[in-house]
Amino acid sequence: GASRFVAGETLEQAIEKVKSLNRDGLLVTLDHLGESVTTREEALEATQSALDIFDAIAESGVNSNVSVKLTQLGLDIDYGFCLENMERIALKAKESGNFVRIDMEDSPRVKATIDIFKTLLKKVGKEHIGLVIQSYLYRSESDVKDLGELGANLRIVKGAYKEPKEVAFPDKRDVDENYKRLVAMHLKNGCYTAVATHDEKIIEWTKSFVKENGIPKDLYEFQMLYGVRGGLQRQLAGEGYKVRVYTPYGKDWYPYFTRRIAERPANALFILKNLVKD
Ligand code: FMN
After folding, report:
1. Annotated catalytic residue: which of 76, 101, 143, 155?
2. DSSP secondary structure, the chain, as one string
3. pLDDT for 100
4. Which of 33, 158, 200, 233, when mutated, tests ligand 1's pocket best, judged by the most ligand atoms within 8 Å of its CB?
5. What is the pLDDT, as a whole number, of residue 269?
6. Which residue CA neighbors atom 8 of ligand 1 most closely?
């Protein structure tokens, strides 16, 4: 069931999981599950949940930052309202000496997400806010160029939503090639890069790339999802790489879970393979 991919229903339970991941040498980013809210009340609740995570991290002393989705903070209700909510979270990240990353959702939301990110990057600085870029989108190469000029901290992913061929590469090989291109570009621009994938070919490629190009350890990290390739996560950490586990918790796990299982055919296979591999 969902529990394999979710670290409990409450923040307290999630913090216990973070402690245990930290003991294994893994860093964490916590995500309070939820997306696509339709009322201001729900968006304000989600905003408060994100603020509470920063307090719980500080109080427990665990090593974790926070990930959020803008549709959870009211992006589909009102841009200005969402920006206000995200700004409170970004200011909290800064005040806590911590970091918040804005996840990337489906393609109709990419422009607004980048706009909000850029606005807040100016306010709180790249040490406290980061963004996600998806290698399946044609536009991402130009976005990475642009965000590189701002020194942005980016998580590069392949992309998890079902997208039309008008906006995204239909062929997995193109997605993988673009993934490597984006990581190489951003690292060569001297910008912090989170390489978020379970794809061993890309992980191996990254290891060689950073070695050959003398990329310092403090400029990149690997990221994987909670409950996926736990053995590989610990192996990389044991080899001395920074590894961060994206750790969702909460009651609203359904959309997250179904995306993991079914949204892209490649992912369905991917998840099945990873259920048996460790
Ligand atoms: N996909 C998105 O579309 N947006 C995200 O913000 C996002 N965040 C992710 C964070 C982490 C740490 C990982 C590992 C994946 C994330 N994904 C995200 C999912 C990836 O796009 C992709 O669907 C998944 O990792 C499977 O592909 P893989 O073979 O590269 O692992």
Report:
1. 155
2. -GGGT---SSHHHHHHHHHHHHHTT-EEEEEE------SHHHHHHHHHHHHHHHHHHHHHT--EEEEE-GGGGTTTT-HHHHHHHHHHHHHHHHHTT--EEE----GGGHHHHHHHHHHHHHHH-TTTEEEEEETTBTTHHHHHHHHHHTT-EEEEE---S---TTTB-SSHHHHHHHHHHHHHHHHHTT--EEEE---HHHHHHHHHHHHHTT--GGGEEEEEETTSSHHHHHHHHHTT--EEEEEEESS--HHHHHHHHTSSHHHHHHHHHHHH--
3. 99
4. 158
5. 56
6. 103
* Catalytic residue list contains 103: yes
Ligand 1 atom 30 nearest Cα: 197
Q: What is residue 34's predicted lDDT score, i.e. its pLDDT? A: 85
Cα of 38 vs centre of ligand 1, distance in Å, is 25
What confidence score (pLDDT) does residue 152 get? 99
Ligand 1 pocket, residue 206 CB under 6 Å: no
Going from the first residue of the chain to its last (278 residues), give the mean pLDDT of each consecutive group of 10, the final group possibly shorter. 84 98 98 91 97 98 98 97 98 98 98 99 98 99 98 98 97 98 98 98 98 98 96 98 98 78 54 54
Domains annotated for the chain, with CATH where assigned, are 2-276 (3.20.20.220)
ipTM of the complex: 0.99
